[in-house]
Amino acid sequence: MTAADPVRPESDADAGLLAPGWAGSPAASATSDGAFLGALLDAETALARAQAGLGLAPAAAASAVSAVAATDLDIRSIALRSRGGGNPVIPLVADLTAAVGEEYGPYVHRGATSQDILDTALMLVARRTLELVLADLERTARALGRLAAAHRDTVMPGRTLTQHAVPTTFGLKAAGWRSLVLDARDRLDDLRLPAQLGGAAGTLAAFTAFGTEDPGALVAAYAGELGLPKPMLPWHTLRTPIADLAGGLAFTAGALGKMAADALTLSRTEIAEVSEGSGGGSSAMPHKANPVAATVIAASARRAPGLAATLYASMVAEDERPAGAWHAEWEPLRELLRLVGGTAHHAVELVEGLRVNADAMREHLGLTHGLIISERLAVELAPVLGRARAKELLTRAAERAVTENRPLVDVLGEEPELKDLDLVDLTDPTRYTGSAGALTDRALERT
User: Fold this and answer.
1) Catalytic: which of 77, 83, 268, 282?
2) Cα separation, 408 vs 393, whole angstroms
3) SS3 breakdown of the chain: % helix, strand, coil, rounded to 5?
4) Are 235 and 196 within 8 A, CB to CB?
């Protein structure tokens, strides 16, 4: 930094300047430094209250710890001092001990280790963020359900390997998006995010030394204070909760990313089968209405697997408490929560405002001179002409339709062998959507 460089307010450090995917979203607040500090305090408060409830600490001590709010503490100071011990719980405990005073200081963090408090705080932040995500996924699923029902029979080109394949319906496409969103919802809703309490090496030894006859009762009381499930075992190096969370979040990002990828393709200028309700502008081109919501969703979906990979790699945690593996989880987990929280919020905006251009979809059915219906013709003509002859005739007719720039139905009409067939009906792409309507209906039965 030179003398001319401006000094920026420290409060701007976590504003998300380079993160339009989550900046300003509810998930941004739920995963902020302040939110994490609040969750750490919630964990310390729950420990004090659980011990007081079992007669292991004075009720006044628990009240004193409960009275300390995140705003009473210097978050920047805690962050900077965390470098000395490798985690923020150590300076937090020092500040919390000082805040409650000499009489009740001995009951702060009593018997716990830093990982107990931080892991529990991670679970609290995750649960609070997932509540926001799940609410947005429900809104997205409802909006997709409306789209699917409204466009059950809106025929459009089905595309495989970027090319027109056979007709499908936009209703079935929207129903597919909805199915993925509901899959994501179910995965996140089924996650088990337990409290963490094990002491220095996961044996609960300190709590026994403090006079706890049944450490399991203390763990249950601690989890109950937090509204989190009781852990079967201390999971300091048994990282199932983190791995499951990583998988659920990455799947959600991918599910929403699939929808965004389709929306981006269909909103291209030369396709224009869908468009965002309120696209973003360009700094250089006044005419642009960019599909911003789909863009930031797609960007998040590309980042999520790498973040999840770090969390999976951290399962390789040595001993009873690891050096590095646990520490490597914090930032990618928070970023994953932020990305998915922001992505789910953008998904609501994308789907609720999505405009469907049914006329463009119908028009595009004819872009291949009618070849989009060749599969149906092959099936229908085989019993009439024989399979080999039907293939030969259709291949030749398709080549002529393209080279002569004529509709396939006109070319086929010149074939004497087909004079008794209703070629208009056979080449109508709207009459060849298979079970798309029934599949859409079945998908919409799911709640």
Assistant:
1) 282
2) 12
3) 65, 5, 35
4) yes
Distance between CA atoms of residues 419 and 117, nearest Å = 81
Q: Please state, as a whole number, how many other Cβ atoms lie within 10 Å of the Cβ of residue 366.
A: 14
For residue 223, what are its two tokens? 């989890």
The single residue listed with the structure tokens 């006079």 is 211
The list of the chain residues with pLDDT below 70 reads 1-13, 279-288
In angstroms, how far is CA 126 from the centroid of its own chain?
13
- pTM equals 0.93
Q: In angstroms, how far is CA 348 from the centroid of its own chain? A: 12
Cβ contact 276:294 at 8 Å: yes
Q: Give the Cβ contact number of residue 166 at 10 Å.
A: 17
Q: Distance (Å, rounded) from C-alpha 445 to C-alpha 225?
A: 39
Catalytic: which of 321, 334, 338, 376? Answer: 321
DSSP annotation string for 173-232: HHHHHHHHHHHHHHHHHT---------TTSS-HHHHHTT-S-HHHHHHHHHHHHT-PPPS
Question: Structure tokens of 15?
Answer: 């504003």
If we measure between CA atoms, which residue out of 440, 48, 3, 400 comes closest to residue 222?
48
Per-residue pLDDT reduced to its tens digit, 292-345 = 999 999 999 999 999 999 999 999 999 999 999 999 999 999 999 999 999 999
Distance (Å, rounded) from C-alpha 236 to C-alpha 196?
8
On whether the CB atoms of residues 90 and 114 are closer than 8 A, the answer is yes
Catalytic residue status for 321: yes
Q: Judge contact between 354 and 274, C-beta under 8 A.
A: yes
Which residues lie below 8 Å from residue 97, measured CB to CB, with a gap of 6+?
105, 108, 109
Which contiguous run of DSSP H or E holds residue 275? strand 274-275
CA-based radius of gyration for the chain:
30
Do the Cβ atoms of 176 and 259 come closer than 8 Å?
A: no
